[in-house]
Amino acid sequence: MLTPPSTPARAKLDDQFPSRRSLDASHSRVQELHFTPDLSQAQLLGEGVWSKVYSSPALPSRQSESGRPLTPPSTPHRSTFGSSEQYAIKTATRSDATGVFQAEAQILTHIQTYESSSDYVVPFLGLCTGTPTPSLLFQRADFGTLESLLESSSNLPSSSTLDLFLHVLQRLTHGLYFLHNTANTIHADIKPANILLSSSYDSLPTARYADFSTSFVADTTPSSHSGGGTYSFMAPEQLSRDADLSIPTFSSDIYALGITLLSFLCGGNPFESLLNNGFRLREAVKMGDAMSWAMQEPAFEARVEQLQKEWQRRRGEGNILSLVACALRKKREDRVDAGAWCRKVDALVGKLSKVESVGLGIRC
Ligand SMILES: Nc1ncnc2c1ncn2[C@@H]1O[C@H](COP(=O)(O)OP(=O)(O)OP(=O)(O)O)[C@@H](O)[C@H]1O
Ligand SMILES: [Mg+2]
């Protein structure tokens, strides 16, 4: 992960023939699974606007009806696909979710045509048609969401919090590079609840992107439900009067990841004090100065100060906030792109003096 983002052969081909990418998105065949899961005893893992997501134990038969084995799309990692394999099934809670789920299955199928997708995106196994409305079957991420980790990390020593932050920062910046530059995909709803964590035998938990319900291939028309993101993770231009600027872009993804990572540094949403007031929240987001808002919260300022001390103890250069500030510029033309962000992060993290990594001893 300390190497600069790689450019797989597939991506090089796509650079020569840009039209291939959108063709992939429209023609990749979604894997259909014809089984009916019993969710009566299933554990609820989480829910969102469109769905309830349940844990589904290893399936009785590990074959879909089409005869294709239920394996993740590419060579699994020992840490994430162990013997006690579990699935997560995303079921619709709204009648109008069918089209949204089909679109999510399509974009995930497109993303999974690229080799390194399982490093950065929670593996998708197929669209279940045996449920009253179609459901989506995923590999289960067993360590909760970045949102839950953020909450539980408040009791950790700052050394462990910094280890976690840097680990997640590198994975997510490289993951965004993969989505943007390899899969040509705009996620459009990056936030801590849409980043899932999987435990690992020998390392810190692995963070990967989930919830592609509003995602689309760049240069194609976003689906009608795109753009309904969560205000506090939206880029300032998305709230302007100009309707064209509200459409998610690579640059608004960069901003949303910047706010997500700033939330980790602060231990909470930078706009915490405004979350109950939609009007003031929108005005604050439009001002494009999330870091100043965050530093007005004494608990956030104190946590960032502690992390800064730990950063300096490891001989980190400059202010730790500079790792995210480049993504949080108000004007989108001033923001970094994913490649430049990866290079900046890798250079700064690569210079840190090594410390013994210790177990976290936490559960989400
Ligand atoms: N593969 C998974 N493993 C474990 N938990 C999961 C998995 N997929 C989803 N979840 C849980 O379910 C929640 C909702 O899933 P998801 O974000 O995909 O749904 P949604 O309805 O599209 O959400 P949103 O309101 O953000 O649009 C997640 O925040 C997470 O807590
Ligand atoms: Mg979600």
From TrEMBL:
Amino acid composition bias (Basic and acidic residues), ranges on this chain: 11-29
The record's Gene3D superfamilies line, in alphabetical order, gives: Transferase(Phosphotransferase) domain 1
GO molecular function list: ATP binding; protein serine/threonine kinase activity
Pinpoint the Protein kinase domain residues. Answer: 39-349
In the UniProt record, the signal sequence range is none
Decide whether keyword Cell membrane is in the record.
Answer: no
Q: Which InterPro entries match?
A: Kinase-like_dom_sf, Prot_kinase_dom, Ser/Thr_Kinases-Pseudokinases
Q: Disordered: where is this region?
A: 1-29, 57-84
- Aminoacyl-tRNA synthetase found in the keyword field: no
Q: Which keywords does the record carry?
A: Kinase, Transferase
What is the name of the protein in this document?
Kinase-like protein
